[in-house]
Amino acid sequence: MNQKKTWxxxxxxxxxxxxxxxxxxxxxxxxxxxxxxxxxYAGCDTLVSSQSLHDLVVEKMPTLGSQQxxxxxxxxxxxxxxxxxYVEHCETSVSIGRDIVIHATQRxxxxxxxxxxxxxxxxxxAIDSLGIKAQTITRTASHECYLDKEGCYMPLSNEGSxxxxxGNGYIKQHLPIxxxxxxxxxxxxxxxTKGQPLxxxxxxxxFLHKHQEYGPLFDQLYMDDKGDxxxxxxxxxxxxxxxxxxxxxxxFSDLLVFYHKAMNQVGWNTYKQxxxxxxxxxxxxxx
Length: 287
What we know:
Number of helices: 6
Strand content: 25-35%
Structural class: alpha/beta
Order of helices and strands: HEHHEEEEEEHHEEEHEE
Shape: elongated
């Protein structure tokens, strides 16, 4: 009796395996049903829509929607989606129901930057006492863009705008013609470049993005004519002078203590400047 049950179980398992294999073969040789795009915005505002990414795939891979499941190149689909400047990461798979499912993650901007960009470099002849030599002329223009949390450049989007920190002022460093060739995170982490204005701006913006106890207090980052980083708070009519992007943990922990213990006592409009530049002290300028 037990042997009979064993054979029945074996037969059932074989039949089930044949059905599964057959269904899988049938599925692999059937055309895909539709293309679904899901975008993870990671709490950020929309800069790229699922529809525009869907349209991108259809434009670059026009036969994708009529391919058999076995011929779908998921890696190529993901690479196509990642060619969009607003996409950080993408994973593509084909569901059991034969849908091509694309999961894209939008890049996270941390600051909207108003700066100057090199737009052209020209070589023109110039005459000096020794004869004729080439002279390089760089033409610049005002430029508006985002910097993301990975230190990369992002252009403004036609599909939406991000409610992030605004950065401007006397920024004595131009964005290069090829903005996508520069990584401000890498600049901020290297001793030889971390003092450059754009590296300093990114470092402070990233610190505020990571530390939610400080970030929501401010809506503007400003570099003054001395090269000092300054912040305009959302509450109170004063400016916080940060100086450079070194020792930010200490500077802002001191500022938070000062806000709680002093500003609540004397009033939020008593001072026009709160200076954090100097070690172990906060210097305030009254109105």
